[in-house]
Amino acid sequence: MDKNNLIGFGLIGLVLVSFIYFNQPDPQQIEAQKRYQDSIAAVIEQQEAEARALIEKQAQEIKALGADSTSILFNALNGEESFVTLANEKLSIRISTLGGRICSATLADYNNQEGQPVTLFSEEDNIVRNARRSDDKIYNQLYFTIDGKEENIDTRKLYFTPVNATDNSVVMRLSFAADKYIDLTYRLLPDSYVVDLSIEAHNTENIFSASTKQMNIVWEQILRQQEKGFTFEQQYTSLTYKTEEDIDHLNERSDDSEKIKEPVDWVAFKNQFFSCIMVGKNKFDDVVLESDTLHEGKGYMKTCIADMSTPFDPTGKVATDLSFYFGPNKFSVLKESNELIGGEDNDLQLQRLIYFGWPIVRWINRFFIMYLFDWLTGWGMSMGLVLLLLTLIVKAIVYPFTYKSYVSSAKMRALKPYIDEINAKYPKQEDAMRKQQEIMMLYSKYGASPMGGCLPMLIQMPIFIAMFNFVPNAIELRQQSFLWANDLSTYDAVISWGTSIWPIGNHISLFCLLFCLVQIANTYYTSKMQPNMGGSPEQAQQMKIMRWMMYFMPIMFFFIFNDYSAGLNYYYFLSTLISVGIFIYLRYKVDENELLKKMEAYYEKNKNNPTKRTNFMANLEAMQKELERRNEELKRNNNK
């Protein structure tokens, strides 16, 4: 280090020392800063003292309320929780004296994955970590709030007294005085999944104001995972409701909430195969719904909340009637329960809780697939055989259309030598319109139609979509084994691993793999069946790309359907395999040379009768001639 560097560092050090010395606070400033810090500490201490005092005051008020014998809630605030069980052949429910609520529901004739009776909800689920929030929140509760003159009624913290308890009914009484009380009468209907609830006031006119006409209901529940496949079950788990106009639901795949403007007939917390439904005999108003999705591994699917109001009569002249359904999503059972709850005059359409698809698809499922499925199931066969017979019957019904489609394509293949002559006659791109016109005229003369192959696809597509909606909702397939599949309602994992890998998941479903392999074979035979229409090199390249896309679709199907039910993949596998067999059979049955002879005979017979052609071909020919005329006119105008 030279002398200049030493001098520079020395000057910098001198500047820093001078800056610190001349900028240090004087004694007055130090004292002012100390007083400021002391005042901040005093303010914090005062706020903490006020907070402690407020907490103590609230605690004293709560304590005083519990000890105040003049309070109308004095008797109801003190008690010990106990339970009353109601049961019939199908359903068992537990009712808690704390809140007078139904706190658990168990089905006797359905088992969970461990072989025990299915429990839809219970008090064991009460404290669960919410998916969106970090706080603990109590779920699986039902409570009522009513505005009172001096104190509001909130049944969450009130104790009820069981009265007149039997095996299938009980009265939960909320007492204000010896002759002033509110009764919650629960009645489990025999041999059903329906529970009626009647809420009736007795001598409570002076407890509630004259303006009290409504009571508020809050229903909260966390939906258990009942099936093996979490992802697949999540798609069919939703908060569903019915208004006068339609049935709708919140988003199944994400958190959602909605405020319903019109009155609501019922609200349902729906799993794939089981539901909890609350029905308001006088409808629900001011309905606010919320649904939060949960992550896999917790053993739960969603948390659902319904906040709503319904009429309440403090005079006790008119009871508030509600009904609950705790049971399977089975069409016949829901329809029967609909009649038990609503009667003949009020069609609640509980059976529409099972989603069968859009209107046309729903009609196919409702009036064809379901009746056929129930008829086959009634024979006592295994579900695998039922699906096999169902597939054969459906294929037999659409076979005439499939045959007609194949013959239509075979006609165009038989005409290929004539089409090749037309392609050679018009090799230039500018003659494409004239070439296409002659090809269409050729089809018309020989009685062929390129649209004839589309009809079976249009007919079979709604059935394909109908089965896509029907099979996952068929509770009859639940826990039914077939071949290597232990449960046709969920995936059949022949290979599985611990970590989920996108997009395949953590398993390989064998029926899905077989379906996709057979779909590739079906694509191969379908492409062979399609005639070569000729055309430009660009059109040929486009056809080649489309065929490769058809081969790529089964690969996409594998990643989409790998999580789907084995029953659905099994049906698609059978349906596609039968289609391949039909194509091979028709390939040998239909002789294209004989077909060409028939078409030539048709041509000779009708060559002098220009009106003997299909309407489609005549219209298409007319359109092409008109387009050609306009093009010629446009060329003449450009040459002027």
Can you tell me about this structure?
The chain is an alpha+beta fold. It folds into two domains: 282 residues, Distorted Sandwich (Beta-galactosidase, Chain A, domain 5); 252 residues, no CATH class. 44% of the residues lie in helices and 25% in strands. The chain contains 15 helices and 22 strands. Strands 7, 8, 9, 10, 11, 12, 13, 14, 15, 16, 17, 18, 19 and 20 form a 14-stranded antiparallel sheet that branches. Helix 11 packs parallel to helix 13. The radius of gyration is 38 Å and the shape is elongated. The termini are far apart. About 4% of the residues have low confidence.
Key structural traits:
640 residues; alpha+beta; Beta-galactosidase, Chain A, domain 5; 2 domains; 15 helices; 22 strands; elongated
* CATH fold-level name of the largest domain: Beta-galactosidase, Chain A, domain 5
Architecture of the largest domain, CATH level 2? Distorted Sandwich
Q: Low-confidence parts lasting 5 or more residues at pLDDT below 50?
A: 19-23, 57-67, 129-137
The structural domain count equals 2
Percentage of residues in helical conformation: 40-55%
Structural class: alpha+beta
Q: Whole-Å distance between the termini?
A: 94 Å
Percent range for β-strand residues: 15-25%
Number of strands: 22
Task: Quote the average pLDDT.
Answer: 82
Overall spatial form: elongated
Q: Assign the CATH class of the largest domain.
A: Mainly Beta
CA gyration radius, whole angstroms: 38 Å
Give the oligomeric state.
single chain
